[in-house]
Amino acid sequence: MRARYFRMRFGNNGKGIYHTLAYRDEFEKASVHLAYIGEGGQEGLAIRYPMDVLVVADLEDETLRQVEELLEKHEVRQMYLPAGTESLVISKQLAAKAGKLQFLREGESHEWRTGLWEFHIRNLGNSLSLYHGYTGTKALGEDCAFAGKIYDPEDHCSPCLIEEKDFCGFGCLHRRDFQTLKAHLDKKFEGYRTGTLLLGKGVFDGNVKELLDNMNGFKERIRIIQLPARIQCWEKELLNLAPEKEIQYYVGHSAYSSEVPGDIASHSGYCHFVPVDLESGLCLSGYFIPFLTKKDC
Fold it and tell me: The pTM is what?
């Protein structure tokens, strides 16, 4: 049976964040492998695979060192970076190793779509924040299910979808202790809430309101929010993104002050704070498949 597969992984190395998305759409004949790195985040696996998009959240020295390592291991076809005084030097350093480079100035944004997966990048506070998520609706006559689980070095799941068929999402749904994220059968939902919001550190430097004001097109699709390693001033307003009676993940660092995980946990029992590191991360994998029988919901 043809399907649309996806896998999202979240981790950090105690310094910064590293996130990957793999999406393959067997109906639209589209696929994408994306990575997002910031604050010196480090890739936790040594698997080599072609990377379609690399989003570099900031121009810190440690982040750029990690980018150099990624370019040694992967063929990177498109890279997005915040514009800064270092842009010209960075362009010369990376031009021979990466594909197309695109710099976004403060306040600039860029959007695109691959199959039915959409992407929005915005430069706020001289760092790039990224939203990505599925745009499909019930009009497609399909259902969605995916599993959220903690992974560690002994888990042999991959951040990429290279094989023609991928059953990782099916396997997790049937064999692991997990949280199945569905909640799409209510009549009030027109789409599927699989969206991920990755926040650059500059968002917490007085830019949260601007961020929220520019999310009207996808605010209700957000399921996971990845927080940066360093939070200048914690903004509880982000907790208002959590819908009623649906699990919402806030992924972050174990080194936060108790205020951040405490506010998340006390806001709602459906708001889950997940601290991740280089060896222990969060993986969300699943699929969209056509209804086997007609459903009126």
Answer: 0.91
Provide the edge-to-edge strand list for the sheet that holds 17-25: 100-104, 76-82, 51-56, 30-38, 17-25, 4-12, 281-290, 142-151, 179-181
d(CA 141, CA 131): 25
Percent of the chain at pLDDT > 90 equals 48
Residue type for 278, please?
L
User: Rounded to an integer, what distance in angstroms lies between the CA atom of residue 67 and that of residue 87?
Assistant: 14
Q: Which residue has the tokens 């800064």?
A: 84
Provide CB contacts within 8 A for 120, sequence distance 6+. 109, 110, 111, 130, 131, 132, 217, 218
How crowded is residue 179: how many other Cβ atoms within 10 Å of its Cβ?
Answer: 13
Q: Can you tell me the distance from the alpha carbon of 220 to that of 193, in angstroms, rounded to the nearest whole number?
A: 7
Q: What's the token pair of residue 216?
A: 């009207």
Question: Using CB atoms within 10 A of its CB, is residue 269 exposed (0-12), middle (13-18) or buried (19+)?
Answer: exposed
Residue type, 250: Y
User: Kind of pairing, strands 76-82 and 100-104?
Assistant: parallel
3-state secondary structure of 96: coil
Question: How many helices and strands, by DSSP H and E, does the chain display?
Answer: 5, 16
Q: Which of 83-87, 97-101, 135-139, 171-175 has the highest mean pLDDT?
A: 97-101
In sequence order, what are the residues at sequence separation of 6 or more whose Cβ sits closer than 8 angstroms to the Cβ of residue 111?
118, 119, 120, 121
**Nearest one of 247, 114, 94 to 184, comparing CA atoms:** 247
Q: And the tokens for 165?
A: 């068929």
> Which positions ≥6 away from 161 have C-beta within 8 Å?
5, 7, 22, 23, 24, 31, 33
Amino acid at 54: L
